[in-house]
DNA sequence: CGATCGTAGTACCCAAAGGGAACTAAGAGC
DNA sequence: GCTCTTAGTTCCCTTTGGGTACTACGATCG
């Protein structure tokens, strides 16, 4: 387990620790969904916009740029005719998918226990 | 284990699914930190404010209320002299802690791989 | 030759959330 | 009656989120 030379300052509870920024990036609805959407392989901008139901192009762009800046995804431009941009997970992004997938799965698995979902829980429609 | 009658509509990728709202609640910096801070047992407002370095009382209140509304935490008021309010995890909240703890742990464990942390990685200061 | 299409965004504008500092309430103790 | 503590609330400003419309580009259609 890649024991780094110094672990003392790595604490998500410390506002000045870089961990906090990374947590803020990953603990985000759109980030969690976008990374999950790339788990099956590279996807194009339009495909991501469709998959991430309800996301606006502006927010999707911002989310993808942030993930790219932090090295979680790669952005590949194919200068073909109607322009083609593919987003794919980096090794780091793939690794980050594990805890995020667990979180998404937990939500789906336990949704019936939430008051928000209670209405639809008995809804056989 | 809680096999519900119908799982088909539960999808975090569907904007209209209650899952999305729950994901939005949990996939949030302050929620993830607040629930984690309560893992060791009940804590008071002030203790949480201290632990969640950088949080403003307003945002902490809003976060706690949201978590309370969704049944993840309990708020107990002790009408003692300088007023005493204790926040604690519900069974649901305890369960939600597992994936969130995994996410926090992953961040701390992999922080050196992020460009954001690269500066401080070799920084012995 | 101009109009239209598809893709991946950007620009503009508004609403909501985040965030800080100061203030409130209520009673104990000085 | 002043101060201390605790748990917020209120005000205001900045940041972020979000929707809609628009752009650029060449290909293809009419």
UniProtKB/TrEMBL annotation, chains A, B:
PROSITE patterns linked to this entry: HTH_HXLR
CDD domains: HTH_ARSR
NADP keyword on record: no
SUPFAM superfamilies reported in the protein's UniProt record: Winged helix' DNA-binding domain
Sorted UniProt keywords: DNA-binding, Transcription, Transcription regulation
Superkingdom, natural source: Bacteria
InterPro entries on file: ArsR-like_HTH (IPR011991), HTH_HxlR (IPR002577), WH-like_DNA-bd_sf (IPR036388), WH_DNA-bd_sf (IPR036390)
Segments forming domain HTH hxlR-type: 17-115
Pfam families: HxlR
Protein name per Swiss-Prot or TrEMBL: Helix-turn-helix domain-containing protein
Native source species: Paractinoplanes pyxinae
């Amino acid at each position: 387990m890649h024991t780094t030379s110094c672990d003392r300052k790595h604490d998500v509870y410390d506002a000045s620790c870089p961990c906090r920024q990374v947590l803020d990036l990953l603990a985000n609805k759109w980030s969690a969904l976008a990374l999950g959407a790339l788990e099956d392989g590279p996807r194009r901008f339009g495909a991501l916009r469709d998959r991430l139901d309800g996301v606006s192009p502006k927010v999707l762009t911002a989310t993808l740029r942030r993930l790219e800046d932090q090295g979680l995804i790669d952005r590949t431009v194919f200068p073909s005719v109607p322009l083609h941009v593919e987003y794919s997970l980096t090794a780091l992004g793939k690794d980050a998918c594990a805890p995020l997938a667990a979180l998404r799965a937990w939500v789906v698995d336990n949704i019936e226990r939430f008051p928000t979902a209670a209405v639809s829980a008995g809804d056989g429609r």
